[in-house]
Design brief:
By secondary structure, this protein is of the alpha+beta class. The protein contains 3 helices and 4 strands; from the N terminus they run αβββαβα. It has one domain: Trna Endonuclease, Chain: A, domain 1 (3-Layer(aba) Sandwich), CATH 3.40.1350. Bound molecules: magnesium ion (MG). The site of magnesium ion has 5 residues, from strand 3.
Length: 98
Amino acid sequence: MRIQPVLEKSIVGSIVKAVKARPGVVIRKRHGTAMGVAGDPDLYGTVGGRHFEIEVKRPGSRLTELQAQRLREWARAGAITGVAHTVEDALRILGLEA
Ligand SMILES: [Mg+2]
């Protein structure tokens, strides 16, 4: 039996679902378009009054240099930032672990 690779899209969906179940958090997917800024993270929102930015990567997949640069930009401006490979990673970044 072949092991199916986990799609980033499905990790993003699971994170959004898990975070939306928590009170007091707004989370949005950032859709890549020509109008957007290249390398900006996949997810953004507000938790506990703070803006957050999360880049989602498949397990074993690493940030590109541009993605790392964008996360640093957001962090320098005061956002909560992180890289999530799993739902648990995202909850930990947001301080929402069970
Ligand atoms: Mg991504």
